[in-house]
TrEMBL record:
Taxonomy of the source species: Bacteria, Pseudomonadati, Pseudomonadota, Betaproteobacteria, Nitrosomonadales
Family (UniProt): Belongs to the helicase family. UvrD subfamily.
Enzyme Commission code: 5.6.2.4
Nucleotide-binding in keyword set: yes
UniProt cross-references to InterPro entries, sorted A to Z: DExx_box_DNA_helicase_dom_sf, DNA_helicase_UvrD-like_C, DNA_helicase_UvrD/REP, P-loop_NTPase, UvrD-like_ATP-bd
Sequence ranges assigned to domain UvrD-like helicase C-terminal in this UniProt record: 284-557
Positions of ATP binding: 27-34
Protein name: DNA 3'-5' helicase
GO molecular function: 3'-5' DNA helicase activity; ATP binding; DNA binding; hydrolase activity
Gene for this chain: uvrD
Reaction equations catalysed: ATP + H2O = ADP + phosphate + H(+); Couples ATP hydrolysis with the unwinding of duplex DNA by translocating in the 3'-5' direction
Keywords for the protein's UniProt record, in alphabetical order: ATP-binding, DNA-binding, Helicase, Hydrolase, Isomerase, Nucleotide-binding
Length: 720
């Protein structure tokens, strides 16, 4: 039992073992928030305060959710499969799958990722004959998502002028199109499940009484609707345990609202905000740099981090003539790190914008260094994979027009633009899907389309096959494989198609059983939603010792021994969109804080005098963030700016690490994890016990009143 709690510091221990109540843990990077959240989960379950089915935990990325499940299985001998741990999108998907009828969705509804959504919007504009100069599809997409993220349906948007009114009409038409086609976009997953719970009282009650504990990581980045969703699910009974760091709020541009933290504190009367200030991740210099940078932000809740680790190495700064030189320098440094025994997977290359990865990838590739890109063009977003998935989607639902439009003529089968237009007209006239409108198209066009319909029909007959075989069957019968085999550079694509079959096999083996109804069609549907939601997590060669490339946004919550932050130039990082206003600049600075605090031992910062970006050469100034780091922490690798003598830095030490005793308790009438009540200190939870008979003592966490050792012979402690 105490094994679980061993090594936690007093604040962490207090947070992990809090009595059942709402709690907010507000703490800086690397202070153990995620560890506390995971340990609390394990603690609640292992002390029988809650059943594994009675907790719900939300994390920000699939990677983090997987990590949590792995850590949990290591701590507890329970089967974590089937537990409600995941991202908002993942959990909402699960809810909607289980209650698709109540949610007004077809059983096999499909998920549109952001590229699919854009394609769907373009198709809509075309069908309505709307000028896409006047209504740029991307802007419309942004508008629609922003409304949904605030929980606003088309009929509830306040339209104050003609332009907005037209946008709202398009929003409405888009909603109808999605409904007709049986597809939902990412924002819809959340909104739809929110509406489901708020309108369906029995269902809401069911979940409210089921989830006793709701735990949220990275709470600072939840948006308005996500927060409302959490409140709805928590009802009056569940305990909300939120951890976050206002300094790491980096999704304001997507509607995330740090204000949620203040609202939460107020609305749930959290009178005991726990702060963690010891950082366990980074060496002193790195932490001091992070603290110094973030100090420049005015709107902060305010906190500082310290470490017991030594100052460590200085932060290395490199100025390159060009982006090419910067990349070559990184390759040399990386080679040296690897020679010194660092594993490649422990080295991260971070950048502000995805576009920066191209030159890095090119240089790493030429140098023969294996790497893995997160969040770039991800496995499930590759052209050949999306094509194969579109066939699978049509098997699941022939009315999925997005999938239909993607592959009706791929591989090419002589269905020209004219035939497709005819088909679209027919579908519009009949108010039906493209697939359903095929019989209405006359002549030769009609005949080729009918042949396509027959192909889909034939594929559909195979739906009873086990998932991996079904995938293979679709790849063969659709002629995708033979098509790519004839392409000059099609080998990689064929390899990826094979990888898709592998992905289906491992999905069936690992996660296929999550589906609550055991049908094969449901397997297919959950595989397809896995493909839409988990994009990026699966890649050929996964598990290899590869360098980690990603944007700063996707590095959130992760840690690496060595971190390179490249492209530290004004206009790039801070990004030009953010410089114009203070709010934007502060968000950029929080991003920098996130980037710096990913590093455990070594941090490299670099910038280039010239850089090719989006086809243009740019001449940038070094980022102000470099100047915000005290010179004493920095070692310049290029003689551009003079090195200053290291200044004195303070390391706080001497804090005793806390060790709960492990002696077994016997015959004292209380058990660990039990809720108790004390006349003076209020409700609490037994955390530890020692001694026996007249000497029996228990340690109790009273939340606000703190952690106390009480002698049972004296203290008046009642079971709660
Ligand atoms: P971030 O804000 O970046 O998400 P975090 O607050 O969630 O960070 P964690 O990732 O939980 O921090 O912890 C950072 C590192 O410190 C992890 O490697 C974790 O295992 C380690 N750690 C946390 N608490 C302790 C502790 N009491 N003793 C030793 N190591 C710890
Ligand atoms: Mg974390």
């Amino acid at each position: 039992m105490s094994d679980l709690l061993r090594g936690l510091n007093p604040q962490q221990l207090a947070a992990v073992t809090l009595p059942p109540q709402h709690a907010l843990i507000l703490a800086g990077a690397g202070s153990g928030k995620t560890r506390v959240l995971t340990t609390r989960l394990a603690w609640l379950i292992s002390t029988n305060q809650v059943d594994p089915a009675g907790v719900l935990a939300v994390t920000f990325t699939n990677k983090a959710a997987k990590e949590m499940l792995t850590r949990l299985s290591a701590m507890l001998p329970i089967n974590t499969r089937g537990m409600w741990i995941g991202t908002f999108h993942g959990l909402c998907n699960r809810l909607l799958r289980a209650h698709y009828r109540d949610a007004g969705l077809p059983q096999l509804f499909q998920i549109l990722d952001s590229a699919d959504q854009l394609a769907a919007i373009k198709r809509l504009l075309k069908a309505l004959n709307i000028d896409d100069e006047k209504f740029p599809p991307r802007e419309l997409q942004h508008f629609i998502n922003a409304q949904k993220e605030q929980g606003i349906r088309a009929n509830a948007v306040e339209a104050w002028d003609g332009y907005v009114r037209q946008r709202v009409e398009l929003y409405e038409a888009y909603e109808q199109q999605c409904q007709r086609e049986g597809v939902v976009d990412f924002a819809e997953l959340l909104l739809r499940s929110y509406e489901l719970l708020s309108r369906n009282e029995p269902l809401r009650r069911h979940y409210q009484s089921r989830f006793r504990h709701i735990l949220v990581d990275e709470f600072q980045d939840t948006n308005v609707l996500q927060y409302r969703w959490l409140k709805l699910l928590a009802g009056d009974g569940a305990c909300l345990f939120c951890v976050g760091d206002d300094d790491q709020s980096i999704y304001a541009f997507r509607g995330a609202d740090v204000g949620n933290m203040r609202d939460f504190e107020r609305e749930y009367r959290v009178d005991n905000v726990i702060r963690l200030e010891q950082n366990y991740r980074s060496h002193g210099n790195i932490l001091d740099a992070a603290n110094a940078v973030i100090k420049n932000n005015l709107s902060r809740l305010g906190k500082n981090l310290w470490t017991e680790a030594g100052a460590g190495e200085p932060i290395r700064v490199f100025e390159a003539m060009s982006d090419g030189e910067e990349a070559r320098w990184m390759v040399e440094e990386i080679k040296a790190l690897v020679r010194d025994g660092h594993s490649r997977a422990e080295i991260a290359l971070l950048y502000r914008s995805n576009a920066q990865s191209r030159i890095l990838e090119h240089t790493l590739f030429s140098a023969g260094l294996p790497y893995r890109v997160y969040g770039g063009l991800r496995f499930f977003e590759r052209q050949e994979i999306k094509h194969a998935l579109a066939y699978l989607r049509l098997i699941a639902n022939p009315d999925d027009d997005t999938a239909f439009a993607r592959i009706v003529n791929f591989p090419p089968r002589g269905i020209g633009a004219r035939s497709i237009e005819q088909l679209q007209d027919a579908a519009r006239a009949a108010g039906s899907s493209l697939h359903a409108a095929i019989p209405a198209v006359p002549g030769k066009a009609g005949a080729t389309l009918a042949a396509f319909a027959a192909l889909i029909e034939k594929l559909h007959e195979a739906i009873e096959l086990p998932l991996p075989e079904l995938v293979e069957h679709a790849i063969e019968l659709s002629a995708l494989r033979s098509h790519y085999l004839t392409e000059k550079e099609g080998q990689d694509r064929v390899a990826n198609l094979d990888e898709l079959i592998n992905a289906a096999s491992s999905f069936t083996a690992e996660e296929g059983r999550v589906g609550e109804e055991g049908e094969l069609a449901a397997d297919l549907a959950s595989f397809l939603s896995h493909a839409a939601l988990e994009a990026g997590e699966h890649q050929a060669g996964e598990g290899d010792d590869a360098l980690q490339l990603m944007t700063v946004h996707s590095a959130k919550g992760l840690e690496f021994n060595a971190v390179f932050i490249s492209g530290l130039e004004e206009g790039l990082f801070p990004h030009e969109n953010g410089i114009k206003e203070d709010k934007g600049l502060e968000e950029e600075r929080r991003l920098m804080y996130v980037a710096v605090t990913r590093a455990r031992q070594r941090l490299y910062l670099s910038f280039a005098q010239t850089r090719m970006l989006h086809g243009q050469t740019r001449y940038n100034m070094p980022s102000r963030f470099i100047e915000e780091i005290p010179a004493g922490l920095v070692k310049w690798l290029t003689p551009k700016i003079k090195v200053q003598a290291p200044g004195g830095r303070q390391v706080h030490t001497g804090v005793d690490s806390y060790r709960p005793t492990t002696r077994a308790q016997s015959g004292i009438g209380f058990r660990i994890g039990q809720s108790v009540k004390h006349a003076k200190f209020g409700p609490g939870v037994i955390v530890n016990a020692e001694g026996g008979g007249n000497d029996a003592r228990v340690q109790v966490n009273f939340g606000k009143a703190g952690m106390k050792w009480l002698a049972l012979s004296v203290a008046k402690l009642d079971a709660a």
